[in-house]
Write a structure and sequence with these properties.
GMP Synthetase, Chain A, domain 3, six-stranded antiparallel beta sheet, 21 helices, nucleotide-binding, LC-FACS_euk, AMP-dep_synth/lig_dom
Length: about 700
């Protein structure tokens, strides 16, 4: 089970003396690591690369179960329980697949570059994902993850930009690559993670695999399956080619809201420093079990899996369907549950509806139990209570399998009330972390026994942080009572730069190695950082007030549980803000039913759409957003004056979200252009004109 090093909550970070410069604070470090940052795994200084790390785990934990998945029974059409492969078995597969992919590259495809070439990976998390990535680390290749939800244009760009000639992919992506083969001139081979040796049901009929292979041959692309490459490697084994610490292990493409994705070059040293840094806060063991469902194309998911691998624990992959995740969790019973606020908000909404908002005796007992545990938490007395846990909360814990010891949230802000509720409901450590792809998702994190919500904690053991003035937004390191500014990060966790992109690299990392995050924050008297704004995506209203819409969206999304997605729109020709809101069905439907006197079911898409168009419902939701804005201390001009409710969710498929779930603002503004125009016309028609 995870264990934690206990630190002083009242002095979480310190400013290193003599480091202040004009326009910036000094360098803040974790209070226990003020003299020197962690840049390796201190208990295993011989580990310099991911290859070293894997060999270390294989040696120590050879016969421990490692990777698990739920196989699908094609006859019964059901998923079974988790089946496991040990560290030793996975290592054998890594050696075989790595040898096979090297033989394919050199002998079959005739490529002259024998190592350091890029291998694409396109799938949700599964054992073959890890085997492919570790094969890259074993034979000194560069792994390049393609987002499972990326559109064709971005996949095309990355495959060409990273000079990818071989992609290892789940079978469902093969057709799209062959269909776009003319736009992928460098692609020479596709390896299917799923078997292509399907049975032909009727004599003389053509199987799907035969069609794919024939289609590939027509396009000049060879198509294999995973087992074929493993068998090829067993026939033609290769010696390992260990990488160097400063060499790039992976290109992790970050998709911005505008422009093409940028390939962050992440070195072996970055990964080792990140694991070492994480070990200084939370120590995972071989008894730990992780549910792996975060996209492995995102660095947060990859770092967490790597930490588990080093620790000798077990990683169980979900089936690939986020709607069935909690079923997988119930089957696996993990000890470690990393998540994102979007998912935790849904869990919170369901728990609240079934406890403190429940009718009758159940609701009354739940409200009393929650109030008692919340009071204890606020007083620093912990998250457990013998009586109320036995009566109520032990049952709630079963929603995550009953064994979860740690919940980790990151990638976006989470509301204070949600964080505190999860702490007392599950009776476990709930950590909130902060970081970015360029910094290995490792910058700051809250402490295990933290009881005050609403901040992102202190610098990690391997990072130092400073705040840099942003005068155009009126944020300065000299502000009172606390310094404010753009968050900059430095340490061995910071990436090498963007692949083939010197311009953006220089704009992101300064000559001293500081990474500019674009996030605005402040540091309080306990040494904890809080994000309050975003440097980009700023516009002016007609009167000249600056608006940071992402900041407003984060507050409204976190404080109003009716919101699943929100887009706040403003214009330099307009003096007010409007919003497009996609409601959260679980909470919106009962709320709207009460307003409209309806009885729409949560699963009734057409009924929900009608509720969204009900004027009384729209007014009521607008008032709820106003309450959320007041709770978030909005200034007058930051409140939205009109709201358009719709079930047309922002998604990667419709081009309104990036694969990392950031809103593509220009695309959303264009898609809802008519509705935005109508809202402003309504404001103009109903706003009294001042008399001269």
């Amino acid at each position: 089970m995870p264990s934690f090093i206990k630190y002083n909550l009242d002095k979480q970070s310190i400013e290193v003396p003599g480091t202040r410069t004009p326009g910036a604070t000094g360098h803040y470090r974790h209070a226990a690591y003020a003299d020197a940052l962690v840049n390796n795994i201190r208990e295993a200084p011989h580990i310099h690369t991911l290859y070293d790390m894997w060999q270390n785990s294989v040696t120590k934990y050879a016969d421990n179960d490692f990777l698990g998945h739920r196989p699908f029974n094609t006859v019964a059409q059901t998923y079974g329980g988790y089946t496991w492969e040990t560290y030793r078995q996975i290592n054998q597969r890594v050696n075989a697949f790595g040898s096979g992919i090297m033989h394919l590259n050199e002998v079959i495809l005739g490529n002259e570059q024998l190592n350091r070439w890029s291998l694409g990976i396109w799938s949700h998390g599964r054992p073959e994902w890890f085997i492919t990535e570790m094969s890259c680390n074993t034979y000194n290749l560069v792994s390049v993850a393609l987002y499972d939800t990326l559109g064709a244009d971005a996949v095309e760009y990355i495959v060409n930009h990273a000079d990818i000639q071989i992609v290892v992919s789940s079978a469902n992506h093969i057709a799209s690559m062959l269909e776009n083969a003319d736009k992928l001139p460098k692609l020479k081979a596709i390896v299917s993670m799923d078997s292509l040796h399907d049975t032909v049901p009727v004599p003389g009929a053509t199987s799907a695999s035969q069609v794919l292979r024939a289609w590939g041959a027509e396009k000049g692309i060879k198509v294999y399956d995973f087992n074929e490459i493993e068998n090829l490697g067993k026939e033609f084994p290769r010696k390992h080619i260990p990488p160097q610490a400063d060499e790039v292990a992976s290109l992790c493409y970050t998709s911005g809201t505008t422009g093409q994705p940028k390939g962050a070059m992440l070195t072996h040293k970055n990964f080792v420093a990140t694991v070492g840094t994480n070990r200084e806060g939370m120590i995972l063991t071989e008894d730990d079990v992780l549910i792996s469902f975060l996209p492995l194309a995102h660095i947060m998911g990859r770092v967490i899996d790597t930490c588990l691998m080093y620790s000798g624990g077990r990683i169980g992959y979900f089936r690939g369907d986020i709607l069935l995740l909690l079923e997988d969790v119930g089957e696996l019973r993990p000890t470690f549950f990393p998540a994102v606020p979007r998912l935790l908000n849904r869990i919170y909404a369901k728990l609240v509806a079934s406890t403190i908002e429940a009718p009758g005796l159940v609701g009354a007992l739940a409200r009393r139990g929650v109030a008692t545990k919340m009071a204890n938490l606020a007083a620093g007395k912990g998250v457990n209570h013998a009586l109320w846990d036995r009566l109520l909360f032990n049952k709630i814990k079963m929603a995550l399998g009953g064994r979860v010891q740690v919940i980790l949230t990151g990638s976006a802000p989470i509301a204070k009330e949600v964080l505190s509720f999860l702490r007392i409901a599950f009776g476990c450590v709930v950590l909130e972390g902060y970081g970015s792809t360029e910094g290995m998702a490792t910058a700051t994190i809250t402490m295990a026994d933290e009881y005050i919500p609403g901040h992102i904690g202190n610098p990690r053991a391997g990072c130092e942080v400073k705040l840099v003035d942003v005068p155009e937004m009126n944020y300065r390191s000299t502000d009172q009572p606390f310094p404010r500014g753009e968050i900059w990060i430095r340490g061995d966790t910071v990436f090498k730069g963007y692949f083939k992109d010197e311009k953006n690299t220089k704009e992101t990392i300064d000559p001293e190695g500081w990474l500019a995050t674009g996030d605005i924050g402040f540091i309080d008297n306990r040494g904890c950082f809080t994000i309050i704004d975003r440097k980009k995506n700023i516009f002016k209203l007609a009167q000249g007030e600056y608006i940071a819409p992402e900041k407003l969206e984060n507050v409204l999304g976190a404080r109003c549980n009716l919101v699943q997605q929100i887009y706040v729109h403003g214009d330099s020709l307009e003096s007010t803000l409007v919003a497009v809101v996609i409601p959260e069905p679980e909470t919106f439907v009962p709320f709207a039913n009460a307003i409209a006197g309806a009885s729409v079911a949560v699963t009734d898409a057409e009924g929900i759409s009608k509720l969204c168009k009900d004027p009384k419902v729209v007014v009521a939701v607008t008032k709820e957003l106003e309450k959320a804005g007041k709770a978030g201390a909005f200034r007058g001009f930051e409140f939205v004056k009109r709201v358009y409710l719709t079930t047309d969710a922002f998604s990667v498929d419709n081009g309104m979200m990036t694969p990392t779930f950031k809103v593509r603002r220009p695309q959303v503004a264009e898609y809802f252009g008519k509705q935005i125009k109508d809202m402003y016309e309504d404001i103009h028609n109903t706003t009294p004109v001042a008399k001269l």
